[in-house]
Specification:
Blueprint (H helix, E strand, L loop, with lengths): L1 H14 L12 H7 L10 H13 L19 H13 L10 H17 L7 E5 L2 H16 L7 E5 L5 H9 L7 E3 L10 H13 L3 E8 L11 H11 L2 E6 L9 H6 L8 E4 L1 H4 L7 E5 L2 H8 L31 H11 L1 H23 L4 E2 L8 E6 L4 H13 L6 E5 L2 E7 L7 H16 L1
Parallel strand pairs: 2-3, 2-4, 4-5, 5-6
Antiparallel strand pairs: 1-7, 6-7, 8-9, 9-11, 10-11
Bound molecules: pyridoxal-5'-phosphate (PLP).
């Protein structure tokens, strides 16, 4: 079964350059087959593997070079191998005393990341299932630290470009929708620090309790980085928890340009990262870094008599005290193996390449008289639209581009205007495909 699986994986990866960018239509009969309940009698591995492969084909091709929509990740095979090993050995990493070795592997990666982001010695990192869950933990920690048990009147400061997971986290953490305040941006789509300051002051004067300021290091819409130094200083003056959503943009910190663009992230109280975006890992890994680990532990520690045999490790974190989960999958190996095997420089180089590719795509599209590119990219998202034309025309343009099945792009709306977006982040996406994408866009704008 292992050999058959590895063969299927090899075939899949070999086929990616030629794979269509999506195959989601005409699916009714396949879906009906896939929905069948499990049988009483055993099945055949080869038959089931084949069924899985046909199921996987009925998707947008998110692993290959063609995926330029939303935020691509790709999925490193070495991380998938780590996952197989980790799951096969099935270690219990919710409590460090049960698996100090595996927890040390994971904690080593987290400590390294805290250092890369300039966080102090008391910081801690915890791997989650994704950015949204990491954000939820951050909001709960901030709430507990700044408001205590009575959370009435607590307010959170965001922008129109803050990811939807912030409002969702606030709601799950017990806040009404009105608690999420939306600060306007300047014309370059960054949070207006002066406007934020005024809004905080006015809210405080009217009896509200401002407690979190959210900066984004790479918005999903346009990859824009908020003015982190100004926001950090404002948060400090006002006693706000400074949360930085770096789910998309955070790992660019590993490059020289990204390090500069993310200046100021080191004063954050919490930072969210998504290795399943910027480290090219398979879906299912987010990270929360918290400046003062005591704040996280205070928010999440629980007590159970059935855990009395376990002494709390001094040196290693008990992950169950740093988030809502007790039992969890061993998330460390899928980070540790690729980092130690490929070396950090391979990640820096790959991320640098994505910055170059986005800059090149921007230059080529902006030079086309039919195309308008409103903002040069801070990171690796390029937004554009046809210079003339209604929203329907823009949508038709996107359809024509995607109909080639060589690339898959997505769209968004900014200030009510429909924009197409091209995000370069997959580790299998290189210059050849990005140049092809640009040619496809230019031809489609004429079609
Ligand atoms: C993707 C993303 C999130 C949400 O992360 P998930 O891993 O999808 O839950 C949050 N913020 C930003 C900026 C993102 O790009």
């Amino acid at each position: 079964m292992g050999r058959q699986s590895l063969e299927a994986i090899t075939d899949f990866v070999d086929g990616l350059p030629k794979a269509p960018s999506f195959d989601t239509g005409d699916r009714d009969s396949l879906v009906a087959e896939l929905l069948r309940p499990p049988p009483e009698e055993p099945g055949d591995f080869g038959v089931l593997l084949d069924r899985f492969r046909r199921a996987a084909e009925k998707s947008v091709e998110t692993a290959g070079p063609s995926y330029l929509a939303y935020i691509p990740g790709g999925g490193l095979i070495t991380s998938a191998l780590a996952e197989l090993l980790a799951n096969a050995l099935n270690r219990y990493t919710g409590i460090s005393g049960l698996a100090p070795g595996p927890v040390a592997l994971e904690h080593g990666v987290m400590r390294w990341l805290c250092g890369e982001f300039g966080l102090p010695a008391g910081a801690v990192g915890v791997a989650t299932t994704g950015g949204s869950i990491a954000t939820l933990s951050a909001m709960v920690a901030a709430r507990h630290d700044r408001l205590g048990e009575d959370i009435a009147g607590g307010t959170i400061y965001t922008t129109p470009h803050t990811h939807l997971c912030l409002a969702k986290a606030a709601r799950i953490a017990g806040f009404p929708a009105a608690a999420v305040r939306v600060v306007p941006t300047t014309s370059d789509l960054r949070m207006d620090v002066g406007a934020a300051e005024k809004m905080v002051a006015a809210d405080r004067a009217s009896g509200l309790r401002p407690f979190v300021l959210v900066g984004t290091a790479g918005t999903t819409n346009t990859g824009t980085v908020d003015p982190l130094p100004g926001l950090g200083a404002l948060a400090q003056r006002e006693g706000l928890w400074f949360h930085v959503d770096a789910a998309y943009g955070g790992f660019f910190r590993l490059t020289d340009r990204g390090r500069e663009r993310l200046t100021g992230i080191d004063v954050a109280d919490s930072v969210v990262l998504d290795p399943h975006k910027g480290m090219f890992l398979p879906y299912g890994t987010g990270i929360l870094l918290v400046r003062d680990q005591v704040t996280l532990r205070t928010a999440f520690t629980g007590e159970g008599d059935y855990l009395q045999d376990l002494d709390a490790g001094e040196q290693l974190p008990d992950y169950n005290t740093l988030g809502p989960e007790l039992t969890r999958d061993f998330r460390g190996l899928r980070l540790w193996l690729p980092l130690h095997l490929h070396g950090v420089a391979a990640f820096r180089d790959a991320l640098d390449e994505k910055l170059d590719l986005a800059a090149e795509a921007y230059d080529a599209l902006a030079a086309d008289p039919l195309i308008e590119c409103p903002w040069p990219p801070d990171l690796s998202v390029v937004t554009f639209r046809r210079r003339d034309g209604t929203d329907d025309d823009q949508r038709a343009l996107l359809d024509r581009i995607n109909a080639t099945r060589r690339v898959f792009l997505s769209s968004t709306r900014i200030d009510g205007r429909y924009l197409l977006r091209l995000c370069v982040l997959g580790h299998r996406t290189h210059a050849d495909r990005v140049r092809e994408a640009v040619e496809i866009v230019r031809a489609a704008a004429r079609g």
